[in-house]
Write a structure and sequence with these properties.
This protein is an alpha/beta fold. It has 18 helices and 26 strands. The site of 5-amino-5-deoxy-1-O-phosphono-D-mannitol has 15 residues, from helix 9.
């Protein structure tokens, strides 16, 4: 969840670290700090609660002199509140470190090393720094090795030792780290956005290997007795820095909403062969689709809601059980999956720890794992049997938008291919399904072009403490994501309900002027949904109705109607998603909130 960067090289380190932290801030943004190895080899630590901007200002006051190596951190608090002291880096004797993850046995280590009186902060990370200092006798590799043997939990660390000027060490278990050796020096970071300004070539730091950055070379050592060298595969970034900038948009979220048509093209078109989905280039064999007896979809948050939509499409078409599980629940269940199960893991970041743990459980059950992932080379991608990469480019806003649409597109394509290879579709039917999928691209463009109308719609709900989303079937699956989007960035309490379920309790919460966002795009349940809308309208709700362009709607059914472009019922999620994202965006904007970095959240959830 935290952002990490380390640098050593010929350039001014503070500038590189602070710029890198601005790019990484979406990972965690409650405090930030840097440590610099100054010209006299002393390590200077500057840290502050609040955003990177605060730290930049503070650094201007606090730092004089130059430094050519250092480490930087943006924090998402786990242990201990948001204070200057709890911010990273943490210093203990000669050791200064930053940490992403959780040290589960920090309490036992505190007792074992008698640290109670030494700790200044309430963080598990400072315990790691103190233990490392106790173990350090002048040999960084040996000390880090001993530390790792003692730790339980997930972590990535960047470490400096005061008597090793110019060197930055790093190690990781689960939590991500990527590194690049460039003409401007050596860099390491929790994700690529911090490396791209300097290099398009990078490597993923292998788990349980020690990395040593020197100004012009990066060494990677196995964690064995002789520290033999490892040579991780060098990878190339498939997007440029522009993709990680706002490019004239006021917020990343709005930019990413606008990027959806292109993201869909990039994800769908390379996999179209003679009008049908083809995953040959992705190395995904038809046998995994043909031979499975059930599909288990696992993910968290928005990715899980994409899975819910996929289930509603797949199960009736494929006529096999399709189950969707929340990763953090699945991993503690005794799942009914086996070697005949196809497990589909969905993750934008490819690093979500609960999703990763569920993936590992699926492997233990003998299931085949197909991952739908956006970040190339991420842990989930590497640990899955097969990967279908979505090509959304970097998603910076915490609220997922374009990642959701491309996850859906990938899942729809999987569904179509499966229907074909399992004999549920003829080639003509598969072609027609794919043509319908391609039609959603202009439909999304049309929807996004109506953003000013949607801004006006959002103005009607910004003063409400609560909002409800209702729909049936697929419309219910869309509602879940719509409610998540609204609550996470506008802080309006929003709940999604299957429209027919409302009267079994929740309708008690509907009263005069409570906004109800009703989605009615599914022909086969349309009249039933309309009846449910009448029920809330009769209780005074302020109804915002999303319907297809040509739907016949009574004038008095809704206070506001949003007409979505006409696409086949199975595909309405795409324009609906754009509309719901824009409602959430403008509600947040109207409340003058931090759209891209909402409170308490972080982009990549690497703690359990
Ligand atoms: O990176 P992942 O797709 O695994 O992330 C899963 C969720 O944390 C994520 O979808 C989250 O719910 C969204 N950012 C919310 O908009």
């Amino acid at each position: 969840m935290c952002g990490i960067i380390g640098y050593t090289g010929p350039l001014e380190a503070s500038k590189i670290l602070l710029e890198g932290l601005s790019g990484l801030e979406y990972r965690g943004y409650d405090s930030a700090g840097i440590a610099l190895c100054m010209e006299d080899s002393q390590i200077r630590v500057v840290k502050k609660a609040g955003k990177v901007k605060n730290l930049e200002e503070y650094c201007r006051q606090q730092i004089s002199g130059t430094a050519h190596s250092g480490i930087g951190h943006t924090r998402w608090a786990t242990h201990g509140g948001v204070t200057d002291t709890n911010a990273h880096p943490h210093r203990a004797g000669k050791v200064v470190l930053i940490h992403n993850g959780i040290i589960e046995n920090y309490h036992a280590l505190t007792e074992k090393f008698h640290l109670e009186d030494k700790l200044l902060s309430q963080t598990d990370s400072e315990v790691a720094a103190q233990v490392l200092n106790c173990l350090y006798e002048g040999d960084p590799l040996a000390a880090i090795h001993k530390l790792i043997d003692l730790l339980d939990g997930s972590y990535s660390f960047c470490i400096m030792f005061e008597d090793q000027p110019g060197a930055v060490y790093a190690i990781r278990n689960v939590s991500p780290l990527v590194a690049a050796s460039t003409p401007s020096g050596s860099l390491i970071a929790s994700d690529l956005t911090a490396l791209i300004p300097y290099s398009r070539q990078y490597f993923v730091v292998p788990e349980q290997h020690i990395v040593k950055l020197t100004p012009y070379k990066i060494h990677v050592y196995h964690l064995d007795d002789t520290y033999t060298k490892a040579y991780p595969e060098i990878m190339t970034v498939n997007w440029n820095m522009d993709a990680a900038m706002k490019n004239g948009f006021p917020h990343f979220m709005l930019k990413e909403i606008h990027e959806q048509p292109d993201a869909l093209r990039n994800t769908i078109l390379p996999r179209v062969n003679k009008g049908i989905p083809d995953f040959g280039e992705d190395g995904i064999p038809d046998s995994i689709f043909k031979e499975c007896s059930q599909i288990q979809i696992i993910a968290c948050g928005t990715a899980m809601y994409a899975g819910m939509v996929a289930r509603a499409i797949m199960q009736p078409l494929l006529r096999i059980p399709v189950t969707v599980s929340i990763a953090s629940e699945f991993r503690y269940e005794e799942p009914l999956i086996d070697e005949k199960s196809l497990v589909i893991i969905i993750s934008q970041s490819g690093e979500t720890i609960d999703t990763l743990a569920a993936l590992r459980l699926a492997h233990r059950c003998g299931s085949t794992v197909l991952a739908v992932v956006n970040v190339k080379g991420s842990t989930i991608a590497r640990e899955s049997n097969y990967v279908l990469y979505t090509h959304a480019g970097p998603e910076i806003a915490v609220a997922s938008t374009k990642a959701y649409s491309v996850q859906l597109a990938a899942l729809y394509m999987i569904c179509c291919r499966m229907a074909l290879v399992r004999g549920k579709y003829t080639r003509e039917q598969a072609c027609s399904f794919l043509a319908d999928l391609l039609d959603v691209i202009p439909a999304m463009e049309t929807m996004i072009a109506q953003k000013e109308m949607i801004r006006d719609v959002a103005s009607h709900i910004i003063s409400s403490p609560d909002a409800f989303f209702i729909g049936r079937g697929l419309d219910y699956a869309f509602s879940l994501e719509g409610a998540l989007k609204l609550k996470e960035i506008s802080y309006i309490h929003s709940e999604a309900y299957a429209a027919g379920e409302l009267k079994h309790g929740t309708i008690a919460l509907i009263s005069d002027q409570v906004p109800v966002i009703a989605i009615a795009t599914q022909e086969h349940v349309y009249s039933k949904t309309i009846s449910n809308i009448r029920e809330v309208k009769a209780r005074g709700a302020f109804v915002i109705l999303l319907v297809k362009e040509n739907a016949v709607v009574d004038d008095n059914l809704a206070d506001i109607r949003i007409r979505i472009p006409d696409v086949d019922d199975h595909f309405t999620v795409f324009p609906i998603a754009a509309a719901l994202q824009l409602i959430a965006y403008y509600a947040s904007l109207g409340k003058h909130l931090d759209v891209d970095q909402p409170r308490n959240l972080a982009k990549s959830v690497t703690v359990e």
